[in-house]
Design goal:
Protein name (chain B): Pyruvate dehydrogenase (Acetyl-transferring) E1 component subunit alpha
Largest sheet of chain B: 6 strands, parallel
CATH topology of the largest domain in chain A: Rossmann fold
Radius of gyration of chain B: 20 Å
Oligomer: heterodimer
CATH superfamily of chain B: Thiamin diphosphate (ThDP)-binding fold, Pyr/PP domains
Number of strands of chain B: 8
Number of domains of chain A: 2
Number of helices of chain A: 12
Order of helices and strands of chain B: HHEHHEHEHEEEHEHEHHHH
Largest interface: A-B, 56 and 56 residues
InterPro entries (chain B): DH_E1, PDH_E1_Alpha_Subunit, THDP-binding
Helix content of chain A: 25-40%
CATH class of chain B: Alpha Beta
Organism (chain B): Pelagerythrobacter marinus
Strand content of chain B: 5-15%
Helix content of chain B: 40-55%
Number of helices of chain B: 12
Number of domains of chain B: 1
Keywords (chain B): Oxidoreductase, Pyruvate, Thiamine pyrophosphate
Order of helices and strands of chain A: EHEHEHEHHEHEHEEEEHEEHEHEHH
CATH topology of chain B: Rossmann fold
Radius of gyration of chain A: 20 Å
Pfam families (chain B): E1_dh
Structural class of chain A: alpha/beta
Strand order of the largest sheet of chain B: 2-1-3-4-8-7
CATH architecture of the largest domain in chain A: 3-Layer(aba) Sandwich
Chain lengths: 325, 327
């Protein structure tokens, strides 16, 4: 017997597989497609579901994302596994010109209940064509909902919420979190809401907004800062679009200081948007300038020693906070 | 699988509707990529479909919903940018998508419809219906990557999709002969292991016959077909576009208008079958329909600022959407 509050220990990656299994069991219109999914990611699903609803696709990113759009327009709820986030560029026409726009362009006649999953493969020595974190590009496209879960529970709950949402959702998963284990709710109807940021640690001196996989670093930074007498509030953004401005502004109104940690490149980053939003709408509550902790505006190198230095760490966040005083 | 007597007259009605719809646009509103010359190709294809079959189309979008049997008033109002338009004035001339008639997209990104039509075919297969999906595209679109990518997927999964090329010989001003390594577009089907058929796109009954065969094949689970309808665009690519060169000769245009007009050709066929009076009645009826559609469009209100927000999302979009510029 399963109780409402039961949990099971799962990694971030296992949580994603479970979310897909549960949603495929719940709704026969949910299908899963992507490159090599029979070998990587969905092996166990092939034991339970037949090939009608599980499609290993040819290497045709733009078209198989578009096939997902077409299927979503006509009664299915496809989950498209786009594997590596740098491949989003190949599929950007179907994502931006079709998925994001079709409801609007048809005057609301149609909806696109599509989920596109993709992984940010940074800190993995795969070099610049596999290691991008391109979510800010898609944040500039109205019509897409963009999620970036940072825990196993959210990886499961947000994917399930995305499948049940009637709009196109792009989920950026972080491979640096794949093996992180957590107690994850067993109840198949526990969802993590789209559009809601979460305060992961309360504090009163500075707000640290963490985007996607920055969360473990932000939480560790808060511990270091606490030892130094600084009380940091850590907000896990969870949803990149639509942005939960309210949670961020409320926090900054109390702390007066804002750090945004984001592994995308600095120019036009999610951090930039949050900084601009707070400067426009919460300027009077700021006691110090906003600081962005991001990847610099250079490409990801193959060399691992150099690559590690590009991305957000505990120490970079701590240093940024210390510059505020 | 030939058209019966009633369906012949219905095909003629839809062809005349397209022709007079476009002529009304020339007279009233100088916007759009006109389908004049393509009527037989479009209507022949659509007459082989059921109401619940899916269609994707192109920037040259006016003919597709009319061919599928859509109501004329909301199409006209859409081109006039009105709130009563089929897309509430938010889509416009290149996007006349009437979902009630199974249209799921008129893509102004050339080649954008291939994956969508393929996905609709996948959907029908997964849901276990016998619906088919028909993808209209131009000769130029066959040079987009989505052409090969999508047909390949439909081929390996035996999806019920008909890829229907309206080959009018020119991608804007670029001739097929100078832009296609294999200008015989139907032959490209060989590369995907599916049937490819070329047909006279000015002969509505010939087009209907080949599409009906492909539809039957698709409904039986035998997979996709590529059809190339050889047609001709009587007007320029778009009637707002300045064309600084003569990329096709006046003689060529005049020849097609004189000898290869699909509406005139089919009218002659029906008259030979003793149906002249019925044709005239259809023409009068369609004139009234088009006049009423223009009046409806002109009298209709424009969309409102709130419509921009109200048509963005199907599920609640979150608090951010209610902020800022909406007010």
């Amino acid at each position: 017997m399963t109780l409402a509050n039961d949990t099971v220990r799962l990694s971030y990656l296992q949580a994603i597989v479970e979310a897909q299994r549960e949603e495929m069991r719940r709704d026969e219109n949910v299908i899963l497609m992507g490159e090599d999914i029979a070998v990587y990611g969905a092996q166990s699903l092939f034991e339970e579901f037949d090939g009608t609803r599980l499609r290993n696709t040819p290497i045709s990113e733009n078209s198989f994302v578009g096939v997902g759009v077409g299927a979503a327009l006509t009664g299915l709820r496809p989950i498209v596994d786009l594997t590596i986030a740098s491949f989003c560029y190949l599929a950007s026409d179907q994502l931006i010109n079709q998925a994001a726009k079709l409801r609007f362009m048809t005057g609301g006649q149609l909806s696109v209940p599509l989920v596109v999953r993709t992984s940010t493969f940074y800190n993995n020595r795969t070099a610049a064509q596999h290691a991008d974190r391109p979510y800010p590009l898609f944040m500039n496209t109205p019509g897409l909902k963009i999620l970036a879960p940072a825990t196993a529970s959210d990886a499961k709950g947000m994917l399930k919420a995305a499948v049940r949402d009637d709009d196109p959702v792009v989920i950026f998963e972080d491979i640096n979190l794949w093996n992180k284990k957590e107690d994850v709710p067993v109840d198949p109807d526990v969802l993590a809401p789209i559009g809601k940021a979460l305060v992961r640690r309360e504090g009163s001196d500075v707000t640290i907004v963490s985007v996607a996989g920055c969360l473990p670093h932000a939480l560790k930074a808060a511990e270091v800062l606490a030892e130094r007498g600084i009380s940091a509030e850590v907000i896990d953004l969870r949803t990149i679009a639509p942005l939960d401005s309210e949670t961020i502004l409320n926090s900054v109104a109390r702390t007066g200081r804002l750090i945004v940690a984001d592994n995308s490149h600095k120019v036009g980053s999610v951090a930039s948007e949050i900084a601009a939003m707070v400067c426009e709408e919460g300027f009077d509550t700021l006691r110090r300038p906003v600081r962005r902790v991001t990847a610099p505006q250079v490409h990801v190198p193959y060399n691992g020693t150099l690559e590690k230095q590009l991305f957000v760490t505990r120490d970079k966040i701590v240093s940024a906070v210390e510059t505020l005083d | 699988m030939s058209l019966d007597s009633d369906r012949q007259l219905e095909a003629f009605r839809r062809m005349v509707r397209i022709r007079l719809f476009e002529e009304a646009l020339i007279a009233h509103n100088p916007v759009g990529h006109l389908s004049i010359g393509h009527e037989a190709a479009i209507v022949g294809a659509c007459m082989a479909l059921r109401d619940d079959d899916y269609v994707t189309g192109t920037h040259r979008s006016h003919g597709h919903p009319i061919g599928k049997g859509a109501e004329i008033g909301p199409l006209m109002a859409e081109i006039f940018g009105r709130r009563t338009g089929i897309c509430k004035g938010l889509g416009g001339s290149m996007h006349l998508t009437d979902a009630r008639m199974g249209l799921i997209c008129e893509s102004a990104i050339v080649g954008g419809g291939f994956p969508l039509a393929t996905g609709a075919g996948l959907s029908a297969q997964v849901r276990g219906t016998d619906q088919v999906s028909l993808c209209f595209f131009g000769d130029g679109a066959t040079n987009q990557g989505t052409f090969g990518e999508s047909i390949n997927m439909a081929a390996i999964w035996k999806l019920p999709v008909i890829y229907f090329c309206e080959n009018n010989g020119y991608a804007v001003t670029t001739p097929v002969a100078t832009s296609h390594g294999q200008p015989d577009i139907a032959r490209r089907a060989d590369g995907f292991g599916i049937p490819g058929v070329a047909v006279d796109g000015q002969d509505v009954e010939a087009v209907h016959a080949v599409v009906a065969q492909a539809v039957a094949r698709a409904r039986q689970g035998e997979g996709p077909t590529l059809i190339e309808a050889r047609t001709y665009r009587f007007d320029e690519h778009s009637n707002r576009l300045a064309i600084p060169i003569e990329y096709r000769s006046q003689d060529e245009i005049e020849y097609h208008r004189r000898e290869r007009d699909p509406v005139a050709l089919y009218r002659a066929v029906l008259c030979e079958r003793g149906r002249q009076q019925e044709c005239e009645a259809v023409e009068n009826e369609v004139r009234e329909t088009i006049d009423a559609a223009v009046a409806f469009a002109r009298e209709s209100p424009e969309p409102e600022w709130a419509d921009l927000w109200d048509n963005m999302y199907a599920s609640p979009p979150g608090p951010e959407h209610a902020r800022g510029d909406r007010k």
